[in-house]
Design goal:
Elements: E1 2-7, E2 10-15, H1 24-33, H2 52-67, H3 71-81, H4 89-103, H5 106-119, H6 126-139, H7 143-156, H8 161-174, H9 181-195, H10 201-211, H11 217-227, H12 234-241, H13 246-259, H14 263-273, H15 280-292, H16 296-307, H17 315-325, H18 327-340, H19 347-360, H20 364-378, H21 384-396, H22 400-413, H23 418-432, H24 471-487, H25 490-501, H26 506-515, H27 519-541, H28 548-551, H29 554-560, H30 566-576, H31 580-591, H32 611-620, H33 634-651, H34 656-665, H35 667-675, H36 685-690, H37 695-715
Antiparallel strand pairs: 1-2
Length: 718
Amino acid sequence: MAACLVIGGVVFFVASSGSSSNSPFALLKNIFSGSGSYDVSEVFVPQPDLNQEEAASLYRQAVANLQSGEFQTALDQFKKLEPAYPILKDMLWVREAECYVGLGNEWAVQKKLHSVMDDLPNSPLKVLARYRIGQSQFRGREWDKAKETFQQIREKSPDSPYAAGSLYYLSALLSRKSETHSQAIQYLRSYLSKYSDGKFGLEAATLLERLQTQPDANDHAWMGLAFATSSSDAQKALAHLKQGSLKHTWHKMGQLLIRAAQTSSGVSVLSAGLPYAKDTEEFSQGLDAILAATPSEQKVTLLKTLAAKHYATGGDYALWKLAELDDASSLEASRQIVTLFPKGDYAPESMWRLMWPLITQNRLSDYISQAQQFMEHYSYARSAPKVLFWMGKAQEKIDLTAAAQTYTKLRDNYPNTYYTFRANSRLEAINNGQADKGWKINKPDSSGYITRNTNLNTLDIFPDSARFGNADEGERRRKEAQTLEFIGVQEDVRLFCTEAIGSLPAAVESWAAQMNGDRARGIRIIRTALEKRHRQNIESNGQTILSDAENSTPDEMKLLFPVYFSQWIAPAAEKTGLDPFLIQALMREESYFNEFAVSGSNARGLMQLLPATAADVAKWEHMSEFKTADLFIPQTNIRLGSRYLAYIRNLFDGNLMPTVGAYNGGPGAMRRWVNAPSSHFSSDPDMFVEGIPYGQSRDYIKKVFGAYWNYQKLYGHT
């Protein structure tokens, strides 16, 4: 039997065993702790009236009471936990200080926080404690003491985030006396020049506006950027930004002008500001805003004009957009990117664009030579698996042994991609002397699918002890972080990890978001983190092959490809004959498991069904009571989406490659592509996929089957 646990709107199935408790907490503990080496009970001290489960529950209750304003109750609960959780002493004391703030007892606040600093000198919360002491002194009008405290933070912890807050508080303290106004202004300028969008940005801008009677261009720029963070201050922000230096203001001022329906002025400002972009990301954001405000028929002309300016920063992005939007310019723009920006982000894919005609023209030896050069320079690139796969395809017509070696290299070094999925099929065909099974999937097996879940050991997701400090102290901090994770108050996990190592591990952040029901955000968090790590690995290791295994752990991959709604996918798969992992993969690409997702075309729910299509399928399913709003009910959406996918499968004689493409682009469009005179659908299905004229459907096939490949590897059969 599988026990059911609903967390954040997600149903988890956990196999029951023996006499283990089926209480929600026991199941939650099973999901969190897994079979890792760290046992939270190692640091828990049982109390006569408090066991481990009760203590964790009490901690969560105390936090809830604190947040709801029940300060005395929360204080008593936190104090009761001190003997049970000695390892959490610093966090408990910080929480107790928060209770005293609510009770208005500033003396007790400072006394408790001084205990963190004095009694626990190695606590990672020490700087936080000092900062909150300064805030308490500020609230209590102990001006001189507050000034001394904030100055100490700036001197002793200049790189901490509290140094920035201290800078603002010092400026506020100095603004109290006219003789120190000039120093306050310098502090405010320093704060705003670095943190105009920071926590105290609006307050600092308002204070500078009051103190500085003759602001210069930089003052106007920093104040404008700060006011721009508040929609209610947009007009004030524009007034300052227009008087500021374009070098600093162009991006935000252009956006605000466009939002204020001054589109022409906004585009002019953004265009004038592009040369000042500090990096490609800022340039791309500016150019994208320009393009969004430009009529479709004028975009190509605009891009040609901008691309001709050869911007040192962002010029490759202008060329890239031109290649995307204008087929006639694609090859020349790609050639310029490779020539002018050979180490830029867009060079590898541009190189691929230049190489692809060699395949279509059957110049296979030339392609192989170009592919080898590509791998020498861009083996780290996201397009490397694609280049390798087609290198293998070209070699198959010349040297099967070389082709098998190329496919093996692709499988070993890039194990998580769509092209790995295809290379694996090609390799099996070569090694076994069989036909390529193509996009055929394994025989559906829903019998065990329902008991599969992400099953992460989040206590072991945390980085090794070394990141928390020296050997002994690092291990103690790691256990404190893991204990907080076990208790389940993510706010405290986040705070502790931020203080101890500068950030919350992305895997834990992703898991927390997914457990709280924000599955799409959780997937985006881990996806972004892995992409960032990939780039950092490139920068530290050089432009060499980096195996996916070096960029991600199995747990991180499970967060990137989690299993959700299995209790409804399994029966839908059994009824339609589809593999449940294919439904899971398609659902992931459609909505990132957001059951309330609505697309620009009004497609709705987990499998993104259009209301009219859903209504037709509901009739097939004899669902006479169906309403469009029912598409937001997971069970209904999955039932209808799976049935529609099976219907399309039958239209294409069971071939799942065009089936998946048609789910995105429509059966009619896919029929036209399949039956086109120049179609390679029968002669070379891989070339057919690359040649699908609708880029979204082309990429959709790759994304869905890439996800399907990863689901099979992580949870099922490969």
